[in-house]
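Lab notebook page, bench 4
Experiment: in silico fold of construct C2
Operator: M.H.
Input chain length: 468 residues
Purpose: comparison with the prior construct
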Amino acid sequence: MTAKIKIHIHIPHVLFQVYIIDVTDGHHRWTVKHRYSDFHDLHEKLAAEKKVDKGLLPPKKILGKNSKSLVERRQKELELYLQMLVQQFPDAMPTPLSNFLHFHLYEINGVTAALAEDLFHKGEHLLQVGEVFSLQPLQLYSVTQQLRLAKPTCCNGDAKTDLGHILDFTCRLRYLKISGTTGPLGTSNIQECTLPFDLSVFKSLVQIEITDCSSQQIQGLPSLRLSLVTMNIHRSTETMMSVLVPEAREFSQWEAEGVESGCPVTTIIPVWRNLTTLDLSHNCIGSIDSSVKLIRKVEFLDLSYNQLSSVENLQYLFNLVHVDLSYNSLRVLEAAHTRLGNIKTLNLAGNQLDRLTGLTKLYSLVNLDLSHNQLAQLEEIRNISSLPCLEKLNLSSNPMCIIPDYRTKVLAQFGDRAAEVCLDGQVTTEKELDTVEVLKAIQKAKDYPCLLSTIHTPLKHISRGQID
């Protein structure tokens, strides 16, 4: 333990002093605020446990307690008191002192001890009810570092804080959420996104959610390939590869398990055997790379709120049912059926699409969201009006929405299926269907002269041939 204690005094109110304690542990620093009564309570606990001499704490002064000289003297006395305590317990700090200095929030030993004790009391219940368990990167980092040290799993003599409680819990945990911080943690200078942690201690996870971390700090993801069913990672990566194939950092030429390759490879990467849901929304992903070869069973894929400008490699996902590509940078989507297959739900909201020619053969599509794009021409609807299963269509917040009678003109292009289509979240009304029938009749009238001309033309040729 390398903690160093320094005390500053801040007086926000004339009636009492608040002592601000600066704690340094290696490269990590944090502050703790306490009043004298907190020092007194700490000392009472330590004295009751016969850890310290009862007369060690500087006594409380009443007269002239706010004078500058007394304040300065009290500062030095309390600082000396804490330094003596830290020196007295260099290896195993008592729990009351550890909590007083917020070691349970910021220091490796204190963090793991607090987590172990919490799981000692609640771990079995949490596993039985199957709730999602939340951890911070600092907690995982602390456990990872503790496992790398050649030291006893319980360093303070309290069996409730044994690291074994954590390892037993992580081996059986099924649902995990890891939430980082975007700035310094609490009152410390700790940037959680710089702390590496290892997930290989989790042997039974079926669902994991990671938010506000860096893909560079996440270690042990490959160990989850056998068990994981659902993976959600947000604000944590710039590539799919770093999540699905972290080994690519070491092997430049690799191939997915079970795929024949005509090119030489340096390693074969196992597939994610049970992963059916992958949510990588709210990241900075710029392309759908070849790492998707490893997630063949995925049915639900969410890549919304990224930086995609094209859709590639999704042809490897034969089981896709729901795809969310909303709020990216897509301008065109050509031959979508060759990449998306028999999907039922496609969300393309919030892109820059102005044409729909690439969607004509998505015959299994039931739900299509095209809101907040650049669609201006009603003629583009013809590209999707023949999709036999389409039931929900969202075109809101497109330029075409300002066209007079926009809804009925769109619905009319679906012909006899107009009543089956829910447009922009609103069920088609009887009045709209009546207007659709009128529009269809007008269109037929327009098409009738053209139809006659195509019939009369060959008749003229026949009659002339007979005369000749």
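Observations: The longest strand covers residues 4-13. The domain at 4-101 is CATH 3.30.1520.10 (PX Domain).
Next step: discuss at group meeting.
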